[in-house]
Amino acid sequence: MLKQRILTALVLLPLMLLMLFYSGSFLWTAFATLIALLALWEYGRLAGFSFQQQQQYLGSTAFFMLTAYLGNWQLPPFIWAIVFTFWLLAMPMWLNQKWKIAANFRAYLIGWLLMLPFWFALVLLRPDSDHAVHLLAVMLLVWLADSAAYFAGRAFGKHKLAPVLSPKKSWEGVIGGLLAVWIYVSYARGQGWLFAEQSWFVAMFAATILTFVSIGGDLLESWLKRAAGIKDSSNLLPGHGGVFDRVDSLIAVLSVYAAVQILLN
Q1: Which of 4, 84, 127, 227 has the most CB within a 10 Å radius?
Q2: Are 95 and 220 in contact (CB under 8 A)?
Q3: CA neighbor of 112 nearest in space, from 247, 260, 258, 255
Q4: 248 vs 36, 120, 190, CA distance in Å?
Q5: pTM higher than 0.90, yes or no?
Q6: C-alpha dist (Å) from residue 64 to 33, 34, 71, 192
């Protein structure tokens, strides 16, 4: 398993960096579309969609994405406000109430609410390769929060964060992840990568919110899998599970980050 994880990472990481820094606008959008559609397909598996439902759902979503790209469409601010509200208010309620989804139109809407803002965020935050560092800086926040929480939890974890949703996560891990993010954002702000125009206190507040949103995105996908009785969203990535398993926190953080950028500007 460890060997598979390493080999998969050795393929995916260079591919991600290559696309991020060297692809043109169309190729990057195509790459973002592939990621979002694969994650949406895996979401459909968790929701229990039939093969026919998956075909219709993915086909209509892909058509919308193509039309949005060719027409240079953007989500209106009120949709971004809904996205922001979902991740900061509705998502914690969902985790607390442990709502389940079924293979119906409401599940379609939830899937779009998860994946379409994520797709728009990937395209919006990286209009060209000159903006690659900015997007990567946000991604690094998510990956650092997850990695630091994992190691801090293994070393010091005693108090469970959400025993039903994710038994291995602990409050000690959360604290470790948050401290790592604060250090990282302080450095990234000084380098002009992230929150460069904000005061240090505003940057730390934003980093804290994004860290908790990141954890929430992870827990939400964990609950969807647990409710569906599935360990991994798929087996597309050997040793890592599925695409949704890898981008669950990114979906949440990039959606919220993009929503704030749109609503404030």
Answers
A1: 84
A2: yes
A3: 255
A4: 11, 16, 28
A5: yes
A6: 11, 14, 10, 35
Structure tokens at 76: 């209106």
- CA dihedral for 29, 35, 204, 14, sign (positive or negative): negative
192 phi and psi angles, rounded to 5 deg: 80, 15
* Dihedral, 158, 186, 143, 147 alpha carbons, nearest 10: -30
Instruction: Kindly list the distances between the CA atom of residue 259 and the CA atoms of 78, 80, 118, 120, 208, in Å, as whole numbers in the listed order.
Output: 10, 5, 10, 10, 16
Burial of 187 (0-12, 13-18, 19+ CB in 10 A): exposed
d(CA 91, CA 97): 10
Give the pLDDT confidence score for residue 249 in this predicted structure: 96
Tens-digit pLDDT profile for residues 129-149: 999 999 999 999 999 999 999
List pLDDT tens digits, range 75-124: 999 999 999 999 999 999 999 999 999 999 999 999 999 999 999 999 99
